[in-house]
Structure formats: C-alpha cells, structure tokens
Amino acid sequence: MPHPLDLALTASLIGDPARAGMLSRLLEGPARTAGELAQEARISPQTASGHLAKLLEGGLVRVEVQGRHRYYRLASPDVARALEALSLLVPTRQSTVRVPEPLRFARTCYDHLAGTLGVALAEGLERRGLLETGDDSYALTPEGARFITRWGVDVDALSQGRRAFARRCLDWSERRAHIGGALGAALAERLFKRRWIARRPEGRGVRLTVEGRQGFDRELGLSWP
C-alpha cells in the first residue's frame, strides 16, 4: 500500500479543477500542447504551464518534444485506468449533462475500446466461449486465442509483455466491463486497421463503419440497427 502522504499528494494533483480538466482531456488519447490544454481548461498559458509542471513532477503526465513543440499525454495506462475508476465515484446529479449518445455508444478508453460497443465486444467473446471472466481480469480460451490470432493479434507476445494481459475495465457509462490491458489495446488497434471502427473528428469518439457492422455480425453475432 502507498504511504498515506503519497496518496494524498497524488489525490491533490488530480483534485484541482483545472488539472482534473486537463487530465480528462488527455484521457481522450491524443497528445496536446500546453496551449491547447490551457484553452480547453479556460486558463492562461502561464497557469497551464504551472499545472503541467506539477503533473509532470507527480508522474501523471509525460511530455514529448517535436521541434519547437511540446506535447503532453498521460504517463501510462495505469493513470488512465485510475481516472476512469474515479469517474465511477462521481455522484450522479440531476443537473449533470447527459453523455452524448455517439460518445456513449463507442469511444476509446485511453487505448482500448469502450462504451456500448466495447462492452458488447467483451460480452460477445464471452458468449462464444472465447473469453473467460475472472475477478478483475479476462483470459482467452484456447479457441479464443486461435480466434484472436486470426485477427492478426500476436497473443504470445502480449502475454509475455510487462503490461497486464487483459483487465476487466468497468465502463463508466455502461457500468459493465469492457476489455482493457494489452489485449484490449491490441484489439482496438486491429479494429481500426480492419476499418471496422473509425475515429470521430474530435475527442475520443469512435464510429462503427459499414465494414464493422458486417464484421461484428458475421464473426460475433453482434448487430445494431
């Protein structure tokens, strides 16, 4: 367990409204400049730089330098998972803005598929006996490993990596689990490459393509109107 003071420090970094807003934006996936984050958080560039320095020091974000530009992104999938988990603790209020339906249907959760589509993918694999559920993780059955391999995913390489193989990531809009971890990221990557899903112009929204509708129906028996 972390020391209470360390836990409090990390919580305080997330707890500031401006920093929480910037972290939420970075949770959408694409790296952003300090100026973009400042504009979206409605604070001055100088204030944003101060907040980002604290997030860097606290290990919640990292920066990549390309020419004259500095791009910020979340430090790791663990940070993304912690932010998603915290969103489940936010009390529901009558005045809370509803999640836009396209975002609720499909979006990326850092680097894996979430929303109705992400949950349906996990449950479809389970129904077909390709995926088994543990307390907080998933495991591929032998048939599931062969199925995922046919999709072009190197299951052996994923299982030998440092990242958790397949986490049960509780979806904040569906309140059911989708597939996180190395497997979730690999599946999302393959779905993009197969053009079953495509990114929406802004944010982390994802749309289901015609090829995707046909593919999900054909291979997993999943269909949408």
Written description of the protein model:
The protein is of the alpha+beta class. It has two domains: 4-75, Arc Repressor Mutant, subunit A (Orthogonal Bundle); 101-220, no CATH class. The chain is built from eleven helices and eleven strands. Helix 2 packs across helix 3 (34-41). The model has no long low-confidence stretch (mean pLDDT 86). InterPro entries: ArsR-like_HTH (IPR011991), HTH_ArsR_DNA-bd_dom (IPR001845), HTH_Metal-responsive_Reg (IPR052543), WH-like_DNA-bd_sf (IPR036388), WH_DNA-bd_sf (IPR036390). It holds the Pfam family HTH_20.
What is the helix fraction of residues, given as a range?
40-55%
Output the helix-strand order: HHEHHEEHHEEHEEHHEEHEEH
Radius of gyration: 18 Å
Total strand segments: 11
Q: What is the percentage of strand-forming residues?
A: 15-25%
Total count of helical runs of at least 4 residues:
11
Query: N- to C-terminal separation?
Result: 47 Å
| Major sheet description | 3 strands, antiparallel
How does the overall form come out from the CA principal axes?
A: globular
The SS-based structural class is: alpha+beta
Number of self-contained structural domains? 2
Poorly predicted runs are: none
How confident overall, as mean pLDDT? 86
Strand order of the largest sheet: 1-3-2
